[in-house]
Structure formats: C-alpha cells, structure tokens
Amino acid sequence: MQQATNIDFWYWDSFVPKQVCESYIAKLFNEESAIDGMYLTDDGDIVGPDRDTKVCADAAESEIGFFLFSRILLANQQANWLFNVDRIETVQINKYPVGGHYNWHVDQNVYNRDGSDSQRKLSVSLLLSDPSTYEGGDLLLKGHKGPITRAQGSVIVFPSCVLHTVTPVTSGVRFSAVSWARGPHFR
Question: In terms of CATH, what superfamily is 2-33+47-183?
C-alpha cells in the first residue's frame, strides 16, 4: 500500500516481501568485499564518526536498481515533486552493526554541484531487515517525530536536500539498500 503524508517523503509500508529482502541481503552483501562507509572529505580524509557502516555496491542496472528507480519515478509523480530525473546511482547495501549510524546529513545540497552534468535530486531507502532483529537504527527525517516506518520491505523516497539520519543500532544488525536519482542541475 502506498502512502503519502506530506511533500517531505513518500513511502510504501511493507511493500517488498520478507523472502525478497532476505535474498537481497544474502546475494548483495559480502562481508569480505564490504568497505567502511565513513564520511570522507574531497581530499580523502576521514571526518569523525559521521557514518559508521559497512557498504557493498550493486549496479544501477541491476534487479534491485531497476526496482528502486521505478519506486523513485512513481513517488516523484504521485508526490507531485516532478523533478527532472533520468538515472540512479550505484545501489549501496548498508550493514549497520551495533554502534552503526549515520549522523544528520543531506544527500545533496541544491547549491552543491559535483562537477558532473547532473546532481542528486531524490533519495530512496529500502529497509531490508526485520525490525524484531535489531534495536535503534531508525531512519529519521528532520521535522518528523520518530521513524516513518521500521517495517521490513518498506520503501521510502524523499528529496535529497531533506536533512536525515540513521540513529545508532543498539542491538542486532540493520541492513538497507539506498540509491539516489540524478538529473540536470537545478536552475
């Protein structure tokens, strides 16, 4: 079921079946090839513990990439954002162990350009873990009390300039899949 609560985000609660979520974790997250997801400056320096995750990647043109992009496109229309987007970035499969978190941040400031012909406009997160297997690890958006949802298989889409965080995991392990839709620079 799709639900819109306001223009800050659009989501589908428990949309992806449990078996599919678990298969994505098993297929796409490999502990040996995972990299630390610490926040890096443009010079490659680690800046504090803003982000503490393990990250694996899957191609934007993969099964999960096509699925996430389809949800972004639908949310973009149904929420009436109507951003000009034409592709998504590589999908990140994130593992948040105990202590894993991502401090308050935006995925793209509308004034920040990365030198490419496009910029991030919409962010998407697919909650892969059963919420009964971990505590903490809530995705929070600025201006909203509590998490939008913790339900496994939920898909959340929001403008990339919205301030958000993932709170520290206090027990268990949380997995999510995220990506970002890009399009021509805002004018």
Answer: q2cbj1_9rhob like domain (2.60.120.620)
